[in-house]
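Example with several molecule types.
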Amino acid sequence: MDIHALQQIVHKTRDARRKQTIPKFSPADRDTLIKKYHPDFRESAYRPIRFGPNEGDKTVVELAALLEGDSPIHDDVDLTPQYQTDVLVIGGGGAGCAAALHAHGAGAKVVLATKLRLGDSNSVMAQGGMQISVSPEDSPVTHFIDTLKGGHMQNDHALLKVMVEDGPSIAKWLIDLGVLFDRQADGNLHVKKGGGSSKPRLLTCSDYTGLEIMRVLKDEVINQQIQLLEFCAAIELLSDDNGACTGAIFKDLDNHRYVVAAAKSVILATGGIGRLHIQGFPTSNHYGATGDGLCLAYRMGAKLAHIDTFQYHPSGAVYPEQLIGALVTEGIRSEGGHLVNAKGERFVNELDTRDVVSSSIIRECEESRGIRTMSGRVGVWLDTPLLDAEHGAGTVEKHFPAMVMQFERFGIDISKDPVLIYPTLHYQNGGVKIDTDSETNVKNLFVAGEASGGLHGRNRLMGNSLLDLMVFGKRSGLTAASRTGSMTQGKLTLRHLQQFRSEAQRHGHASGVISPMILPAYTRKVG
Amino acid sequence: MAQEDTNVIDQPEVLKPRLVTIEISGKKYEVPEGITVIKALWYTGQEVVRGAGCLGGFCGACATYYRTKDDPKVRTCLACQTAVQDGMSFTIMPPFPARKALYDIQKLQDPKQDLFNLYPEAPLCRNCNACTEACPQKIDVREGVWKAVFGDFKSVSEMFMDCVMCGMCTPVCIADIAPNLVALYVSRAQGAHFTEKPLGLETRIKEIQDGRFDDEWKKVLNMNDKELASYP
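Resulting structure tokens for the full complex:
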């Protein structure tokens, strides 16, 4: 059928739906729903990791293969460093920039290496906002409790406490750098309500929050003249005789040469895994989200946490084809947008946590109440025109300019017509286990941002990622910088890799997989 | 199922993709109609390292020049956000060596005057409007440059909130202005120097420093999961 004909039911049922209140699920119903429909519970997609720090733990097969994968580095590689620094930051997104700026600000010599350009990351795409408890009726404790409930009580309490408490000073730091958060008429920060949060707590820069923060942080990294190694992909870490991290080997993607950097501390800020397309899901992630940091840290002996749980953002675009997987911001639901099935019915409280909303969309689609596309996809409607009906004409255009432009390019006016959505692979809830200084169990190896694990439990709340990046970027940068004075540069060896390889051999492992992946293999190899 | 017959969106282009002829950097290829420019690169077997970033229309890495069939006008787009059509000719923009001024945003004394020291070329705009025409985000770039020069930093910061820093406004400027960099400076100055500091935020920071929440923390951190789940 013509898409406009199928959309009629959304228009027709709008007024009736506006009068409805959909209660949130009880904790027991949530659990049942998630266990039945959430992709994290699809057993066939998982297997135990055969060896290494997380031996026996289950994760998705795509990630297990990479974690067990071999390094591209040969034993006879020349380890003479071309760069010598106090702090080596690997990754150029939000966490990497924050780490580099704080370490530099504390007087350390910093090198920031990234496999694409500075700033090419998921951070730049964050639309929904950044959770910080700034309003008088809110508090860091409430933020803590909301996040715990969202994370199924599995969050690391110590990490979570420092995140919510550092939040307000992070907002101040960003404002002083020139970030333009939305304001109320009285000059205070405007806060929006996000899924799973009991109080409005999202700081926003219209629907360009990540872009605005990243424009400023990138500019600041350049202004501070922090040394950059762009298009340099980390392919192995280096260790001294005691197993502490002492640097990294990169591959320069322009000339394919190896680059060795010696560092007193290394901060991995390499982001997530969306481009592994686990379970065949499309993804909202950037081109380089291939889990490189997890593989590098794992080979060094760093323990991973919660690597069996991933976030499928409820609203990934399903139509048009060109936008498949692209995110339709949760902000639409924050402002009251309904999710509507093919029968014109709402089926979930749209502001429930992401795992609950995603599971319920999958349920609707599996029970034949979805709308299908001819390319074999299925989805439900997100009633975007409702926002104009509810808050006045022009609301969608004013509050979601990025979204409007993205769809307008393909001839779709989201203020007039609902959009078809289905969950898209969005975030790795877990990652390398860290402490409140952002350090791993490997000495002088720090991990910040999405590559780290423990903070978000089994489901991250909307708006907590931008804050995570800034808080643990800062903590890793400051801790790493504070150590430089009392430290000498450790030896550069591949001892950890030799150990990893002998362990792999003992487990009879020869999968032929080389990791990290660096970039997804999208290039068509046959004519 | 009867429902399956009705709840399907028509997409004839998906069922029978029509191959169209396009030109990538001057070479002809056949690709399915309607795929994005970046996917056309992959489809034709090209490895993409430079020229792809977020793939979501936010990072500006895939700034592209293109022309449609028989039209002499060269346009700009983001390769991850634009569909190919028959007869289209495109090339990804190489990194352009624009000069970015270095400054310490917090230490500026007179940001509106400092603009002329940092970017002395900014007032030399000759009004050709090429920057506005080159903007894939439809920002009125020329107007923004003039507003910057006349000190209306607030308007510039609002106009350039959509800016993905692709830099396509820069190579076309006959006065050698990098409008996106000028606007970035202006926006940061607006935020750091000309926007009211939020008082509520200062209060909250002080409350945390003064331990206003310490008693509640003590209580909460001693709870078991069940108690936490039903708190407050």
